[in-house]
Each structure stands twice: as C-alpha cells, then as structure tokens.
Amino acid sequence: MKRNKIGLLSILGITLIIAACQKDSPADCDTVPTYNSNVKEIIDSNCTLSGCHDGGSGAPGNFKNFQGLNQVTTSGAFSRRVIDIKDMPASGSLTDAEYNTLKCWAAEGFPLQ
User: Fold this and answer.
1) Is residue 10 part of a domain?
2) What is the pLDDT of residue 92?
3) Measured between alpha carbons, how far is residue 22 from residues 15, 18, 25 in Å?
4) 3-state class of 71 per DSSP?
5) Pick from 112, 108, 111: which is nearest to 30 by CA?
6) Are 102 and 32 in contact (CB under 8 A)?
7) Taking the chain, what is the end-to-end CA distance rounded to the nearest angstrom?
8) Helices marked H in 50-107 — which ranges?
9) Pure H helices in 25-59
10) Taking burial as the number of CB atoms within 10 A of a residue's CB, which of 17, 49, 52, 85 is the most buried?
11) Is 20 inside a domain boundary?
C-alpha cells in the first residue's frame, strides 16, 4: 500500500512538472519585436477593422496608433485577451507567427521602437 502511494505521488509530481513547463514556457523570441517594426501591421490587419478597435462605434479603444493601444497594454487587458485567453481578435485569424510576435512583444514590455 505504501509503495502504491509513493508511485502515485511520483507520477503526479512528474505530470505537474511537465504541465507547468509547457504552460509557462516563454515565446520563441529570436529578436525583440517593436510596435513600429513588427506589431503595427498585425494590429492594423486584425484589430482596426471597421466596427472593431477603429475608434468608431464598435469595440472600445482606438488601436490605430500606439497611444490608443498602449492603454490596453499597460492595463494588462491586451495580454489577457490576446496572449492568455486567445479570444482576440474576434475573427481568431492570427497566424502562429503573428501570435508569437505579439507574445514576444508583450514579454519585452511592448516597446514602441
């Protein structure tokens, strides 16, 4: 009985370690993406569409410029919705490369340049 408990605890411990490593693994960042060089194009083609974050009557926020987007990056809302929950953009149309760029941008503190 004691041997079974030790075996089960060992398996549980290994499983938790593997799961924690996979969940917390950092983005594969070869370079530091910046808003001007890498991110603006992704935001423009996925987020500032009519009725979305274009400053009009759609979704809240105006992501057509860094200042408007900066409000949600500093509040943590961008990371929460785009990186963690992955429910934005609403179309779900980010490629793996775009997602990784945004994840690296967030990991580096959302640099402008």
Assistant:
1) no
2) 81
3) 11, 6, 5
4) helix
5) 108
6) no
7) 61
8) 66-75, 77-78, 96-107
9) 40-46
10) 52
11) no
Q: Token pair 């990186």 is at which residue? A: 83
Residue-number span of the structural domain to which 81 is assigned: 32-107
* Domains held by the chain: number: 1
Specify if 99 maps to a domain.
Answer: yes
Q: Check: CB of residue 64 under 8 Å from CB of residue 58.
A: no
Cα–Cα separations (whole angstroms), residue 75 to 17, 79, 96, 110: 30, 9, 24, 12
Question: Could you tell me the CA-to-CA distances from 82 to 12, 13, 53 in Å, in that order?
Answer: 31, 30, 14
CA 17, chain centre distance (Å): 23
Scan for tokens 């149309």, then name that residue.
93
Evaluate whether residue 90 is within a structural domain: yes
The answer to whether 42 touches 109, Cβ cutoff 8 Å, is: no
Buried b (16+ CB within 10 A) or exposed e, 42-72: bbeebbbeeebbbeeeebebebbebebbeeb
